[in-house]
# Entry
Amino acid sequence: MRSEAHEQLLAKIRAGLADTRRRTALYVGTEGGRESAEKAYAQFPESQDLLREARRIKREAIDRLDENLQSFIRNARSSGTIVHLAPDAATAISIVIDLVRVAGATRIVKAKSMTSEEIDLRQHLEAAGFDVVETDLGERIVQLAKQRPSHMVAPAIHMSVEEVTDLFSKNLGREIPPDPAQITAVARESLREDFLNADVGITGANFAIADSGAILLVTNEGNARLVTALPRMTITLFGVEKIIASTTDAFTLMQPLIMSGAGRRLTSYVTLMRGGSKLAQNGQQQEHHVVLLDNGRSRMRADHEFREALYCLRCGACSDICPTFRIFGGHVFGHIYTGPIGIPWTEYTATPDDAGKFAPLCIACGLCQEACPVDIDIPLLIARVKERYTESHGQTSINRTLCSYETFVSLASVMAPLSNFMLRRQIFRHVLQSLIGIDARRPFPKFTRHTFKKWFRPHLGNASRTVAYFVDTFADMCEPEIGKAVVGILEANDCKVILPEQIGSGIPAFLYGDVKRTTQAAAFNVRHLADAVRNGCEIISSEPTATYCLRELYPRLLGSPDANLVAAHSHDLFEYLLELQRGGSLKVARPKTSIEPAVYYAPCHTRSVYGTSPSFQVLRYAGLDLQTVRYSTCCGIAGTFGFKVGVEGYDVSMAVGETLFTRLKAMNRNLIITESSVCKMQIEHGTSLRVLHPATVLWKIYQADRAE
Amino acid sequence: MTLTQETLTSQFAAQLQSVGSRFTLVSKLSEVRDYVGKLAEVVQAKRIAVSGHRLSSLLFPLGSPSPRFEVASQANMGREDFFSMLKIVEIGISVVDLAVAETGTLVTTTWDESERLVTALPKIHVALVSRSRLVSSLREAEAYVSEVLSQSGGGVTVSLISASSRTADIGDMVILGVHGPRDLHVLLIDEELPGD
# Structure
């Protein structure tokens, strides 16, 4: 069942995939943002401590919002600032319009503010007859284009230099060469006039400091300085979640905002304002107003999961890393708030429908959380948005089918080799495509009826350690050699392996918003794994998504002592081996059979859980010539997503993976190593290169060693 | 210079230079006058603005040769005239309250927007830092800023300047001098400067 909203989204996806100029501009902007952020953090060795501290500060600030709000109001007022409280957008708009009207103003200059976008402030002021000029260059560009900003930090990231040149040429009535330096010079001159003639300046605030009543603004351009220094009245509009306790907290928080958002330690300008200063033109005290907006933030705060979304610093890092944002940009992947964090923010500041409509663009890779300087669990919040939306609007039939993928793969396994034969027949694939919606171009892995679980035999003899292997579908029913390799490696390292009772992780359901189903799978698996842990087992998985579930997702979904117990004792096989290595008991020798030089690809879920990949480290330790590929986002398949027909999934997954395929092929190595079964499928399909699981490789080394 | 001072100075210089700002060490105010004179000649500046009430007479004292440009300050003209000058001067000269070596940051507190605009309107900003005002870490600057903001009364702005104005909003290319100075010159001076 496909609704009109879904059809509209698919149409946008189709158009977005075809728009190569837009895709290039977005790629350049987001990749640039991501690279400069990485560089900024690399140059700052204490960054991890800083980020932990930043999260702690935000958590406390949101916990203490009520008292901080009162402090802020009191201290701001004592400095001469006039404070207004706006429970909703309509109130905020009427407050601002009244202020501007009473001031007898006609011209307004504005600095960039997502909060003002949230309430459509400029549009309402213009409708009321006021002349409003956006002064941030990116905002000015989208204003001229009559568009919304498409990214929280770089509003015109989706536009090419040619498009921008056209806009300014038309606006100023003369030909401007397509050169950013010249466009900027022209904009500087023209906007300077607007600054000097403005009656009112409107800004947002990056932070509001409770113990002084000051606001803090970061800019590189310097426009916020002129917006606040020249007009006779300034109005600062911000959401109440911006309030933090002290200058110390502000100094801590501004750094990750700037490093993640602008790729520098500090922006060119950081301005802290308390009250209105003496005006240059006449020596009078500037009238300074602040408007504090709620507009759904209290409701967000009251939800024990969505509360975390209020930690957002508006750095835009989640957008820069998101595989689908990078293709489509914020006009498709957004409502007013754009990108991954835009989904929960839209849920509460606009409507659940507005959020649910573009939430399917999230493919649940988890990289947004990895990029987030304050570690917001954005994937979980997005899944909740999808959950609420599908509960009221229903689920597409393909998504529903894929939530039950286990039934199909079990069937394929039982019916192998016939199932494999069928799945290779194009006619059958086209039938499958029409009936269910699985793209005929997506190769299926080979299934076997000689599954890993059928092969598995209990370990006889003594071993000093026992581990429970949480085996994934692929290693069980498609490539049991992986499972056998895992067991072989563990047994060679003095471990006895047991197979606990388990069902599939439930992650496809999570991707499609059926969080209840994932939670049920979590409850089942945790019940049995917790027993295993209590019996002295550590839990091993060889599929990064399984590890992600056990260590990160299940504890979030269940919140129970058992879930936390399981999480604390769950390991990726290679992380476990690294622990053995640190304890001096890892059995691995230099490879005597030469494994050919290879390239390692880090799956999203490995990055989410571990940062640096344990399998990469172990294989290097074992002497492999292993390089990594320079690539920062998802490979695109996102589990079952890349199987869906056309613009529902396959086309998007291949567009996302394009750059990865090109880069892998350019490395001139014939072997790719990755521990994710689905990344393996995607890379094989996109490059035709051979892809092996690191366990398979390591087991080969062990066996060669034994043969000596 | 002590070893610590030398380290601080090099760190400060390196941070500034890494973002394209110019850094120069001088010992006396007269050297500042020479620097400004040369700069004005190179950029063909006809007018410069000097912040505060005492700095201009210290930089360009009576009896010293008249500079080849007009010097505007709140000491030698009324507020409105100074504001008119601010809109057209090519160079703005200001004294900072504090500077941070760790990040190459200049910290200035203003209660009068005329003063802030000296550092914001012209294309070229020359910032003067007394050696005694150079601290090592952002943390120390933070203590200073907390102190300023905690004082009663109102109408105060603390500006942290770490580089010249720039944008990457068009095609992700960095362009300098958007709505603020394009060039930032920082002079570190042994001599104590007037806090104004």
Notes: The mean pLDDT of chain A is 95. Chain A touches chain B through 71 residues (CB under 8 Å). The longest strand of chain A covers residues 233-239. The radius of gyration of chain A is 28 Å.
